[in-house]
Write a structure and sequence with these properties.
By secondary structure, this protein is of the alpha/beta class. The chain has seven helices and ten strands. β4, α5 and β5 form a beta-alpha-beta unit. It is globular.
Length: 301
């Protein structure tokens, strides 16, 4: 019996960047060196991507960004059209390409988003961006040879609160990732996300809300750079307690018992004749009679 050849592991990290609250971070400045908060975030994301590529020659990287209007592939660039880049003396060409593509792509996406977002409301297309990341992972998996074994995972970097309109999109992404053995990690800035906490717990990923954006690179390298197989050997932040109660679409509050639309599966804490999500009108069947318990007949002595 000939020994089977060992398959080469190919780790793939798809970074999904939520650029919706970018204008809020762009207005903040760092006092120590005078650089803007957005430049610090850009440097952290690029440094994390390059660190992942440095870990092995077979490592692969994908970067997808989204705002309130669209989603966009930053790296590898769509249709193979990459921006011209200039590498510094001694800099690896691939690192220079990653640096140029992410900076140019994020800058264009932020400038094209003309909607003003505050810290409490959000209408980001994060669910669609994660779905595109799953499609890219499936594409790479089909293109790999039989001698390679893909180890994919998705890292979500966001600062937006949950959007009730994308509840079903998030759930579809989470259960699809669980079926395809894709781990979803999440790094939250400035706010928490109950939906992403559920997604990380369903797929076996790591959820972390960082206390300050200044240390974003340190948290990315410490918590999210190691793969899921070796995380049990390092000291990580304690896991957050995940609340699996559903949030109503009307007040965004967690409910134990609610009403569910039979068409779009929206959840409401109070009964309404019209679903505010899909505008479906519910007809009450007033002719239905609820059967009552039969009364016991007195015994005849």
């Amino acid at each position: 019996m000939e020994d089977k050849e060992e398959r080469i592991e190919t780790p793939l990290v798809a970074i999904v960047i939520d650029a919706t609250p970018a204008k809020k971070f762009a207005s903040q400045a760092i006092i120590d060196n005078g650089s803007t908060m957005m430049n610090r975030i850009f440097d952290a994301l690029i440094g994390f991507g390059n660190a992942h590529l440095m870990q092995g020659s077979h490592n692969k990287l994908a970067v997808i960004a989204c705002n309130s209007k669209s989603t966009k592939f930053l790296y590898p660039s769509e249709n193979g059209n990459s921006k011209s880049y200039h590498n510094r003396p001694g800099q690896y060409d691939m690192f220079a390409k990653v640096d140029s593509d992410i900076r140019h792509g994020l800058s264009e996406l932020i400038l094209n988003d003309s909607i003003d977002h505050d810290s409490t409301t959000s209408d980001s297309l994060l669910g669609g961006a994660m779905a595109r990341a799953l499609c890219h992972i499936h594409k790479v998996q089909r293109e790999l040879s039989l001698s390679h074994q893909l180890k994919p995972r998705i890292l979500v970097v966001s600062g937006s609160s949950d959007s009730a309109l994308q509840y079903m999109t998030f759930m579809n992404v989470f259960f699809t990732a669980q079926k395809e053995n894709v781990v979803i990690d999440c790094c939250m800035m400035d706010t928490d996300s109950g939906l992403l906490q559920q997604g990380c717990d369903i797929t076996g990923g790591q959820y972390l809300r960082i206390p300050t954006v200044v240390g974003l690179l340190e948290y990315l390298l410490w918590v999210f750079l190691p793969g899921p197989s070796c995380r049990s050997k390092i000291v990580l932040p304690p896991p957050t307690k995940v609340d699996y109660r559903a949030a109503c679409f009307c007040h965004h509050k967690l409910v134990d018992i609610g009403w569910v639309c039979s068409v779009c599966l929206s959840i409401f804490c109070k009964f309404s004749i019209i679903c505010t999500t899909c505008n479906t009108e519910f007809k009450l069947n007033r002719t239905a009679i609820v059967p009552s318990k039969p009364k016991k007949r007195p015994r005849m002595e």
